């Protein structure tokens, strides 16, 4: 289901936000029956509290939502979405003294709260509707919500139904929706097109590896999005333990996220030329699997010593990045569920990103703060370059020692981007381990909303 706002002429019940600091003054301004009802139900404006105020006919006249204090709104993103979940049905309108950013966050959070992944249950979940608040761009917010829901659906779908074939089909559906062009190179044709590392990683699977190349737009700056599309990662011959394999359906979270971002860009008609590159593979085990100790040659001629077949994401991305860099865009973004080291450093909620461009980093950070899509800049620390330079090849795909794993992976990818003026790599998690307002447990987009919000600023730099 694509979340949308209620029709503008729909009758709506107002939802009033009440802060803890302003509660006494607000209560004093109400008539006696309201004051008595509020006191009887223990409502004091605590963050997330919900109270329905009855009309004389016992229908709902208004809804109160506790807005807490400033620290509550910092700690809890999409606080307004708690009302959407609690109310479950009906049509509502925002009623409160919120800033423009808070209003936009509230409206988007309400839309996102309607998301549920019910492909295998089939149960339709009844959701409350919201009228678009005055001053927000409703179509833009609906496009953002639809892009995020696309990302969540792709990640949540198990690998049995989301392999390279199905990921390609999702790309073709998106291209058809927006009139984009798409080209797919599959199987041994990857060798003919000089994409050897994508082929090497995916050749052991019964589902053929491929590179998906989608383009859209004819004018404006050039932007290329590259997303890791490892539809399932067994770890290859360096087989993962079962406890580490359980969430590997999400290893195509980078691809899912760039597709969600691509939808946001195309649905809102941005004046730019977009390219999306997705190396789609399954890292499996068979007699022709690539091995520890092998040396592979990448598209750009660099040789890579394989010291762990479970560090496969950077290999498929390397070929895609090298291809993109041959016709350098104005901006290239790489998104991948790449390293556990990033999660150890920042946890599941913060998306680390790498760039040498200070202006780009500042624009992304500001956007992430504004739209509540938190990011954290990490360093391309060049003194660590020797950690990815083994004895017998140009690069090592899995440096020993265990230190700085996210940084060394980013440095590895950076070797394949030499001509593009602005480049950022995101090492995302793509999974929400604990349900939160507007963010149920499961697949989730990270960084896409921040990138989308930052694009006008970035493209004007």
From TrEMBL:
One protein family per Pfam: Peptidase_M17
Coiled coil: none
The keyword Iron-sulfur is annotated on this UniProt entry: no
Keywords: Aminopeptidase, Hydrolase, Manganese, Protease
GO molecular function: manganese ion binding; metalloaminopeptidase activity
UniProt protein name: Leucyl aminopeptidase
Cellular component aspect of the GO annotation: cytoplasm
Entry's transmembrane regions: none
SUPFAM superfamilies tied to this protein: Macro domain-like, Zn-dependent exopeptidases
Lineage of the species this protein comes from: Bacteria, Pseudomonadati, Pseudomonadota, Alphaproteobacteria, Rhodobacterales
């Amino acid at each position: 289901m694509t979340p949308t706002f209620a029709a503008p002429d729909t009758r709506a019940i107002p939802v009033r936000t009440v802060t803890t600091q302003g509660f006494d003054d607000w209560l004093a301004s109400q008539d006696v029956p309201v004051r008595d009802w509020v006191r009887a139900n223990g409502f004091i404006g605590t963050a997330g509290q919900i109270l329905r105020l009855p009309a004389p006919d016992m229908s709902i006249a208004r809804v109160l939502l506790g807005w807490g204090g400033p620290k509550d709104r910092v700690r809890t993103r999409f606080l307004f979405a708690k009302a959407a979940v609690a109310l479950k049905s009906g049509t509502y309108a925002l009623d409160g003294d919120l800033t423009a950013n808070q209003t936009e966050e509230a409206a988007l959070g309400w839309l996102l709260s309607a998301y549920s992944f019910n492909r295998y249950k089939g149960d339709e979940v009844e959701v409350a509707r919201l009228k678009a608040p005055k001053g927000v761009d409703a179509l833009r917010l609906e496009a953002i919500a639809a892009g995020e829901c696309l990302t969540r659906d792709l990640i949540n779908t198990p690998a049995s139904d989301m392999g390279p074939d199905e990921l390609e089909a999702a790309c073709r559906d998106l291209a058809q929706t927006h009139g984009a062009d798409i080209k797919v190179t599959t199987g041994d044709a990857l060798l003919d097109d000089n994409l050897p590392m994508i082929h090497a990683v995916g050749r052991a699977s019964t589902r053929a590896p491929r590179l998906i190349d989608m383009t859209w737009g004819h004018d404006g700056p050039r932007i290329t999005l590259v997303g890791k599309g490892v539809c399932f990662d067994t770890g290859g011959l360096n087989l993962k333990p079962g406890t580490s394999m359980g969430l590997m359906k999400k290893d195509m979270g980078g691809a899912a996220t760039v597709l969600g971002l691509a939808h946001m860009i195309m649905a809102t008609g941005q004046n730019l030329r977009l390219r999306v590159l997705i190396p789609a593979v399954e890292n499996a085990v068979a007699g022709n699997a690539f091995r520890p100790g092998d040396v592979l040659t990448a598209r750009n001629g660099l040789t890579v010593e394989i010291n762990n077949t479970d560090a496969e994401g950077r290999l498929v991305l390397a070929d895609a990045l090298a291809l993109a860099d041959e016709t350098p865009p104005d901006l290239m973004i790489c998104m991948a569920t790449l390293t556990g080291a990033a999660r150890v450093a920042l946890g599941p909620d913060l998306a680390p990103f790498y760039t040498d461009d200070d202006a780009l980093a500042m624009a992304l950070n500001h956007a992430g703060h504004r739209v509540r899509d938190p990011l954290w800049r990490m360093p391309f620390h060049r003194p660590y370059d020797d950690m990815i330079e083994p004895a017998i090849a140009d690069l090592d795909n899995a440096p020993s020692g265990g230190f700085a794993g996210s940084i060394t992976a980013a440095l590895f990818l950076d070797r394949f981007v030499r001509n593009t003026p602005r480049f950022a790599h995101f090492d995302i998690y793509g999974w929400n381990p604990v349900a939160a307002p507007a963010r149920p447990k499961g697949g989730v987009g990270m960084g896409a909303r921040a990138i989308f919000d930052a694009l006008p600023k970035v493209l004007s730099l």
